[in-house]
Amino acid sequence: MSDLLAIGASGIKAYSRALSVVGDNIANAQTEGYVRRTVRLEEAPAAGDIVLSRNSIRPGGVLAAGVERAVDQWLSDDARTAGGEASRQAARLDWISATERALDDGADGIGSSVTAIFTSADQLSANPGDDTLRRQFLSAVDQSAAAFRRTATSLSSAATGVATQAQGAVGQLNTDLSTLSRVNDGIRRARPGSSNEATLLDERDRLVVNIAGATDVAVSYDARGAAIIRTPAGDALVEGPTTASVTLAVAANGQISFGIASGSALVPGSGTLAGLTDASAHISGQRTALDTLAGQLASDLNSAHQAGFDANGNPGAALLNFGGSAATLTAAALLPSDVAAADVSGSNGNMLAFNNVRGPTGIEQNVAGMIAAQAQATAAARAQEAAASTRRDGAFAARDAIGAVDLDREAAELLRFQQAYEAAARTIQVARETMQTMLNIF
Questions:
Q1: Domain identity same for 354 and 261
Q2: 37-43 and 62-69: which strand pairing?
Q3: 220: how many CB neighbours lie within 10 A of its CB?
Q4: Do both 123 and 262 map to the same domain?
Q5: CA-based end-to-end distance of the chain
Q6: Does 209 lie in the same domain as 65?
Q7: Which of 45, 102, 156, 336 is the most buried (most CB within 10 A)?
């Protein structure tokens, strides 16, 4: 009878733990990073001591050998890689779209404003003595300079936004690295197969996914399951008690770069940091292109205007002041009588000659080319982001098919273990009744 009691007691203990794990699964069905758990049930050893005698043979029983997580490491690694690339493309698209908005060629855009200068020159050429048309021409020049300054400010704000987001991403990355180091320490101390170990492993995997979402890393695990994080170049970010710190540098042109506090460079190949690096390089390139266009506008218009004569017969003055960047482009303070509409051929000859600035390599075409190139870059970034998101969603779905909690399955497991628990309790009851009956004989 003592054997039956032992069998029943082992079942009560094992199935109680199994029910507890099923309850955890149900309670955490919507918890991010939670991986479904099961209790590994094993048959108790068939030989050994029992309560009332030694060196006997007992029927056995059941043991809860430990808690296991439903994880496919290959699928987890694939999801981590796909998630990092999706984060890169999402961050890149956000700021390339912001660049497109800054270069928007609407009514107040740089392209429209440059065209307005030549339109007003054509109108003035038809009536060069009209003060109103001269004022419109000077106003068009001023509005174009203002459009270049606004665009330069917008691009500068975008570059600042990238740097600010990068600073936040670096701060979060360093926090995750430090937290992972502490979680690793907990994993090494946890009892193997315990629920505490499973919880720590869930947190470990969540942090690893976050880190890979910031930058690409090489991940390995020690004998106890603690994560070892290295950069693709081999620099340790988390290994044993060592935790590295990632740093951010912002150049004068707004481009960002990353490093490790030890002095090594960090060149992210995926993740948010890689997307922000791409975006900062793109914005920097567009700012340089805008400065070049502003310089060309000032040079072309000044040369064309200075080739003529104003209403007083004086050589034309410079229309624009250019200090080396689009942000410094301003219209010169001229009076309507200072507009050099005439040349040696007639009173409107210089205004007619303004059309020569509109050639295939002229400022107007170059502005249009820049805006078209930006539109193409945005479309390409949008397509890449969509592809990366689809790839990520597929990888996450495959991973979750293994590790996510299915409430229907948990309900079935709950019923199964409840019945097993009741059967174990019934075994103990039968053992008690049988023993009592035997004792009553005497």
A1: yes
A2: antiparallel
A3: 10
A4: yes
A5: 17
A6: no
A7: 102
**Together in a domain, 333 and 410:** no
The number of C-alpha atoms within 13 Å of 127 and in the hemisphere containing its C-beta is: 9
Distances (CA, A) of 205 to 42, 48, 184, 268, 347: 27, 40, 11, 20, 78
Q: Tell the residue number behind the tokens 């930058």, with chain if given.
A: 215
How many domains does one find in the chain?
2
Q: List the one residue out of 371, 399, 331 whose CA is nearest residue 106.
A: 371
Dihedral (Cα; 425, 430, 431, 434), 10-degree rounding: 170
Nearest to 246 by CA among 225, 272, 219, 282: 272
* HSE-CB for 78 with a 13 A CA cutoff: 14
Structure tokens at 216: 């690409």
| 61 neighbors 10 (Cβ within 8 angstroms) | yes
- Phi, psi dihedrals of residue 42, rounded to the nearest 5°: -130, 150
Domain contains 400? no
For each of the chain's 442 residues, which pLDDT tens digit applies? 447 777 888 888 888 998 999 999 999 998 888 999 999 888 876 655 555 555 555 557 888 888 889 999 999 999 999 999 999 999 999 999 999 999 987 778 899 999 999 999 999 999 999 999 999 999 999 999 999 999 999 999 999 999 999 999 999 999 999 999 999 999 999 999 888 999 999 999 999 999 999 999 999 999 999 999 999 989 999 998 889 999 999 999 999 999 998 888 999 999 999 999 999 999 999 999 999 999 999 999 999 999 999 999 999 999 999 999 999 999 999 999 999 999 888 889 999 988 888 888 899 999 999 999 999 999 999 999 999 999 999 999 999 989 889 999 999 999 999 998 888 888 888 888 888 888 888 7
What single-letter amino acid sits at 427? T
Residue 297 falls inside a structural domain:
yes
Same-domain pairing of 333 and 432:
no
Return the biggest CA–CA distance within the chain.
Answer: 141
Helix, strand, coil percentages, rounded to 5, for the chain:
65, 10, 25
Q: Do 243 and 331 share a structural domain?
A: yes
- Do 424 and 302 fall within a single domain? no
Range of the domain at 196: 78-394
